[in-house]
Amino acid sequence: MRTALVTGISGQDGSHLAELLLGRGYRVVGTTRDAARELPAGLGERVELVAVDMLDGRRMAEVLSRHRPDEVYNLAACTSGEGQFDDAVEIGRVNGLAVSVLLEAIRGVDPRIRFCQASSSEMFGDASQSPQSEETPFHPRSFYGAAKLYAHWMVRAFRRRHGLFAASAILFNHEGPRRGPGFVTRKVTSQVARIAAGLATELRLGNLDARRDWGYAGDHVRGMWLMLQQDSADDFVLATGETHSVRELCERAFGHVGLDYRDHVREDAAAFRPPDPVQLVGNPAKARARLGWSTEVRFGELVDMMVDADLRLLRQGAGGA
Ligand SMILES: NC(=O)c1ccc[n+]([C@@H]2O[C@H](COP(=O)([O-])OP(=O)(O)OC[C@H]3O[C@@H](n4cnc5c(N)ncnc54)[C@H](OP(=O)(O)O)[C@@H]3O)[C@@H](O)[C@H]2O)c1
């Protein structure tokens, strides 16, 4: 039986990845900051949860020595836009430096451990070309993107210098029913559920013409797993390769419950973000060719799935707040 260690297992991707790994017969160990954390989808019963400070190299080495993983997936990060984007030091520590701490621990305990880093399309930032591939130069704009880029380069450096099987997944946006409430997809689908239930009437959003490359989390974590099943470590863009606007997102989500988004959505000037100078959209050709990876859940299906999940949550009394 293979063992996988997943940092940040309580998050959206962590839970999808844990389900995938358990389904493939892995023993799964997950890290969290809080051992009392409840995992979604009944995972608490099926994975071993350990509390770890991601910056504590000694503790990380202890966890690796005790659980002896074959594969490590580093998903823990400051990700939500709720104020955390502004904390440059914390973002630098967790999204950047912690990756070096983890790679050093792997090197010390067992350099055969395979490692996958959850990197981000935000590393491209003010990209000079579109779509973006593994060859596109990085120009991060945010603290988040800059810290992720440091980690990305450290993954490559550990691979070159120490021969570790260390791979970096350059992830474009991926969503699903477990997406945090601060992200625009979930903001839309949860409010659509409330409006459909008669609990609200309006949804305020920023620029409706902003476009994103939105995929499904279940597909993207499968890509990360595939990356660690190869003969050698490499970096891959995981993306759908197509974009949709916030307006299309609203149209689909409201349409799914028989409503017209134009009756409910208000564009809020205060929430406008400056437009991206170059369209951020990934080119997944390398992942397709080398991993045989492609996305299975299309945009419309993804939005319907999220609305249905939010309607269910509301009925269960957990999503109405
Ligand atoms: N989802 C996307 O579209 C996307 C796109 C590009 C890259 N990524 C990357 O993919 C990974 C997974 O994303 P996700 O969507 O699953 O994120 P998520 O739902 O926000 O989960 C991230 C997890 O990281 C842990 N975490 C948060 N702040 C932390 C801190 N200060 N120190 C240590 N751990 C912390 C949390 O676990 P505990 O609270 O249990 O500690 C949280 O559950 C992240 O590294 C993210 O940056 C995601």
Structural overview:
The termini are far apart. The chain folds into 2 domains: 196 residues, NAD(P)-binding Rossmann-like Domain (Rossmann fold, 3-Layer(aba) Sandwich), CATH 3.40.50.720; 93 residues, UDP-galactose 4-epimerase, domain 1, CATH 3.90.25. Helix 2 crosses helix 3, helix 5 packs across helix 9 and helix 7 packs across helix 9. The strands form 4 sheets. A 7-stranded parallel β-sheet has the order 3-2-1-4-5-6-11, sandwiched between helices. With 321 residues, it is an alpha/beta fold. Helix 1 links the parallel strand 1 and strand 2. It is globular. The chain contains 9 helices and 13 strands. Bound molecules: NADP nicotinamide-adenine-dinucleotide phosphate. NADP nicotinamide-adenine-dinucleotide phosphate binds next to helix 1, helix 3 and strand 5.
Q: Report the principal-axis shape.
A: globular
Number of helices: 9
What's the helix-strand series? Answer: EHEEHEHEHEEHEEEHEEHEHH
Sheet of most strands = 7 strands, parallel
Gist of the model:
This protein has helices at 12-23, 57-67, 88-109, 143-162, 184-196, 217-227, 246-256, 285-291, 299-315; strands spanning 3-7, 27-32, 48-51, 71-74, 114-120, 166-171, 174-175, 203-205, 211-212, 215-216, 236-238, 244-245, 265-267.
Please give the structural blueprint:
Elements: E1 3-7, H1 12-23, E2 27-32, E3 48-51, H2 57-67, E4 71-74, H3 88-109, E5 114-120, H4 143-162, E6 166-171, E7 174-175, H5 184-196, E8 203-205, E9 211-212, E10 215-216, H6 217-227, E11 236-238, E12 244-245, H7 246-256, E13 265-267, H8 285-291, H9 299-315
Parallel strand pairs: 1-2, 1-4, 2-3, 4-5, 5-6, 6-11, 7-10, 8-13
Antiparallel strand pairs: 9-12
The structure holds NADP nicotinamide-adenine-dinucleotide phosphate (NAP).
NADP nicotinamide-adenine-dinucleotide phosphate binds next to helix 1, helix 3 and strand 5.
